[in-house]
Amino acid sequence: MNHRFPYKWNLSDGYPAKGINYHGSKVFSCFACGGGSTMGYKLAGYDVIGCNEIDPKMMAAYIENHHPKFVYLEDIRVFKLREDLPQELYELDILDGSPPCSSFSMAGNREKDWGTEKKFREGQADQVLDTLFFDFIDLAKKLQPKVVIAENVKGLMMGEAWSYMREIYKQFDEAGYYCQHFLLDASKMGVPQRRERVFFLCLRKDLAGQFLYQKDMFDVQPKIEVEFNENEISFSQFDEQYVEQGENTMYPSLIEMWNRTEIGSEMIRKTGTGAISHYKINPKNVLNTIIGPESAGAFHWKYCRGLTKDENCSGGSYPHDYNFLDMKSKYFIGMSVPPVMMAQVATEIFNQWLSKL
Q: Which among 123, 253, 297, 308 is least buried, having the fewest CB atoms inside 10 angstroms?
C-alpha cells in the first residue's frame, strides 16, 4: 500500500520523513504532552523550536526524545503572561496546541464537568479544563503566528458543546484570525487506528487576502483542502502474535470475559463506580481509538493479552525507539495526536498556505 508517511518508523531514521523536503518553518507546541504533534511537524519538514507543558513527567520524556530549544514547564495561564519570551516566539509560522479535552469527550461526564476546577493529572494545578482553549487563543493573540492549529475531540462538535465552538470562533476572530474546523479520521490518513479529531486551522487575517473565498453570503474563509483517503491499515499488518504479556493488565475477571468474548466484540467490566469498556480485536479491521487508561482498551484476538509496546507504537504511528522513561507507551499514545495524522495536516498547511506567503 502507498502511504505518504510511514506508520512504522524510528526517531533514529531522522527528520523529515523519506521523500519530504525540509523547509524549516518554525513551530511552537503548547500542551505538548509526549510530542505526538511535534513529531508530525518534524516528519513534514518543520522545525519545532520549543514547547509548553504542565506535566513534569511528560516534559521529561519530551526533552529526552526531542531536545527542544525553548522549554516552559508551567501552566499555560502563567506562560501566556510572560514578558520575557524570546523574539523567535513572536516570529512563528505555526503555534500548535491540543488543549486538554476530557470535559468534551463523549466518554466523560461532559456538561456535568463544565466550569469545574480539577486536576488533569496528579500534582498539577487545579484548572477549569474547558477554558484552557481560550488561554491558548490569548497566547495566539499575543504571539501573532502566521497560522494557529488546535486539535480537540469530536465531542466538541456535539450537543451543548456547540456553544464553546461559537466562542472559539469569536475569540479567534478577535485575535485576528480566520478560523475553520475539520473533523478528520486518522485511519484515512495512514494511521492504523480509528481516531476522529477536530482540527481548527486558523490563518492570520493580514496574510489571508490571496486565499479568501466566499463560503456563503455571510462567511468568508481562506481556502484549504484537507481531505484524506489513504488505504486503511488493519491490525494484522503489525500483529506480533504470541508474546508472554502485553501492556494492559489482564485481571482474573477480564481473562474470564476474554475467554467468552467473540473476536471483534466489546467486553464490559463493571467496577465499583461504573463500567470500563474493552474489546477483543478483529485482526482484519483497523484498531479502535487507543486510549490511555492501562486497564481499558484493546485485547489481542488470539492470545489472552493486551497489546505490546510495538503494537501500540504502530497503531499510534509513534516511533518504535521512543523513550517512554518509566511510563507505559499506551498512556502516551492514547494522550497524543498521532504523529502521522499531524504530519498530513501540517503538509497541507505548508503546501497550500505557508509556501505561498
A: 123
What percentage of the chain carries pLDDT values higher than 70? Answer: 89
Active-site residue, 101 included: yes
Q: Are 223 and 353 in contact (CB under 8 A)?
A: no
Same domain, 40 and 50: yes
> Do both 76 and 173 map to the same domain?
yes
User: Which of the pair, 24 or 110, is modelled with greater confidence?
Assistant: 24
Check residue 273 and give its pLDDT: 67
How many CA atoms are closer than 13 Å to the CA of 167, on its beta-carbon side? 14
Do 55 and 66 belong together in one domain?
A: yes
CA-to-CA distance for 24 and 21, rounded, in angstroms?
A: 9
The predicted model scores a pTM of 0.91
The active-site residue, picked from 101, 179, 202, 313, is: 101
pLDDT number for residue 116: 46
Asked whether 271 and 289 are in contact (CB, 8 A), the reply is no
Give the max Cα distance, the chain. 62
b or e along 113-135 (b: 16 or more beta carbons within 10 Å of the residue's beta carbon)?
Answer: bbeeeeeeeeeeeebbbbbbbbb
Residue found by looking up cell 485575535 in the block: 175
User: DSSP strand E in 240-356: where?
Assistant: 266-271, 274-280, 297-299
Least confident of 127-136, 257-266, 293-302, 322-331: 127-136
Mean pLDDT computed over 68-97:
97
User: In whole angstroms, what is the distance from residue 345 CA to residue 357 CA?
Assistant: 18
